From TrEMBL:
<feature type="compositionally biased region" description="Basic and acidic residues">
    <location>
        <begin position="82"/>
        <end position="93"/>
    </location>
</feature>
<feature type="domain" description="BED-type">
    <location>
        <begin position="4"/>
        <end position="54"/>
    </location>
</feature>
<dbReference type="InterPro" id="IPR003656">
    <property type="entry name" value="Znf_BED"/>
</dbReference>
<dbReference type="GO" id="GO:0008270">
    <property type="term" value="F:zinc ion binding"/>
</dbReference>
<dbReference type="InterPro" id="IPR052035">
    <property type="entry name" value="ZnF_BED_domain_contain"/>
</dbReference>
<keyword id="KW-0539">Nucleus</keyword>
<protein>
    <submittedName>
        <fullName>Zinc finger BED domain-containing protein 4-like isoform X2</fullName>
    </submittedName>
</protein>
<dbReference type="Pfam" id="PF02892">
    <property type="entry name" value="zf-BED"/>
</dbReference>
<keyword id="KW-0805">Transcription regulation</keyword>
<dbReference type="GO" id="GO:0003677">
    <property type="term" value="F:DNA binding"/>
</dbReference>
<dbReference type="GO" id="GO:0005634">
    <property type="term" value="C:nucleus"/>
</dbReference>
<keyword id="KW-0479">Metal-binding</keyword>
<keyword id="KW-0863">Zinc-finger</keyword>
<feature type="region of interest" description="Disordered">
    <location>
        <begin position="68"/>
        <end position="104"/>
    </location>
</feature>
<keyword id="KW-0862">Zinc</keyword>
<keyword id="KW-0804">Transcription</keyword>
<feature type="region of interest" description="Disordered">
    <location>
        <begin position="502"/>
        <end position="530"/>
    </location>
</feature>
Amino acid sequence: MPKAKRSKVWLYFSPKDSNNAKCNKCNKVIASKGGNTSNLMKHLATHKIYLKAEACTVFDCLREREPMPSTSVGSVGLPGPSDRETDPNPEKVDTDDDSSLTSASTVTPFTLAKKANLPKVKVEELHRSVTRFVVMGLHSFSTVESKWFREMTTALNPRYRPPSRDDLSNTLIPAWYSVEKQNVIQELAQVKKAAITCDGWTSVAQEHYVTVTVHYTSHSVIKQKVLNTKAVYESQTGLVVADEITSILVEFSLKTKVVAATVDNASNMDVALKALKFLKVGCFAHTLNLAAQKVYGITAVTKWCARLRAVVVWLKRSTMAKTVLQEKQRLLGLPDHSVILDVRTRWNSLFLMVERFLEQYPAIQAASLDQRLRKPMEKDRLERLTADDFEKAEEFVNTMRLLYTSTLCVSSERSPTCGQILPILNKLEVHFKVAEEDTAFTSAVKEKVWGDLKKRYQDENVQNFLQEATLMDPRFKGRLVGAVADAWDRLEKVAVASLTEELPMEGIQDTDEDGSDDNDEDKAEKHVNI
């Protein structure tokens, strides 16, 4: 007769055989040799289910507090001493002074043991501090079990025993997460409209995740919260992504509050947002990066980059080259910077490689003439750089710098960026217009980049949304070209509609008992207040 399974973990798994169990959520088979549940509980953690955290009360003092004035999820932390709820009956901490034991109290092994133990309130406070140290400092869980960490905590308080890595990963951090999640849900309940950003990424272990971040305003302050980073085990088709986003939004009661969603330019994201009926605003920084990568398709740029890249790779590979380059930098008074190698999937890496090459060109040329490097370079048949390569580098940097600066401008979470898209596109259109004095190299770069950018943001709904965002941004008010009058009309209608929703309630409050309204002067004051 099989042994009865008493662990709560089996509520989420179905036994497949004596050594394996299948997850009821993702249908993944997990090893559970001999009924062992450790692997099963670790797998449940990927679904944000923590069974050990249910009985943890360390973070209960953080519940039902006012939302922290945070601008990003990274700044959500444990409160300081002034933020914590005070215990109405704080437990008195025994002192280490033997004089505290009066003649009225008998010294027994039990009283000595009680004196040696820290009060529960103090232990929980120290546990919160250790958890905050690990989480906010991005330390590994094994830190709390290292010899030097234990030695430090013992020196600070010999009576305190820090939590183990198992306590951190399965109890304390999940309990903190649960409390903070409820606080976020409570704060988002007061939000009327919000926007989201969504992106998928793959870890080093080849596990795919989807992250959803919500953006909203509270008391005229922009805030962001990372709602979830969810592990996914299905092929990321558009409909699957839509279901994953929906489940996260429903969990935080945001499904009906989303105005727009910002995603990358992947086709599955396009299908997902169409299924969700959200307005898609493509990530502008990603769009600029896609346009910048188009220069790799220019033959002249590809051959020129290959010569630069070969020199950069050789300098980074040789230890002697690094030493010689640093000597030449000191002699020429140049910054002690290393050369940069471009990576095609990394944003702006080609621009940064060429910019650093320009900065260090005198030192690179001097190093290549040094006797310690000349023979190895000739042996490797490394092609020497010429003045023409330097001129092309100058042209490339002057042409692409505005694109790089634009990427930095819109990569901000502390200020609104949607209203910047149209003004920046107008600026880029003028900048990338081919001029008569441009060389063939510069003309090819300009045509390739703007040829890709001009195809973006052509949808009518997206255009209207961006126009309204630009007009509402005081930095660009009055600078928008095009159908400005239509955009102002749309904004006026929205403003009137929102005011109309409030007028009936105020009319009821300002009406006399006999049904007569206030005089004209009172009505005028009422509209001014609105």
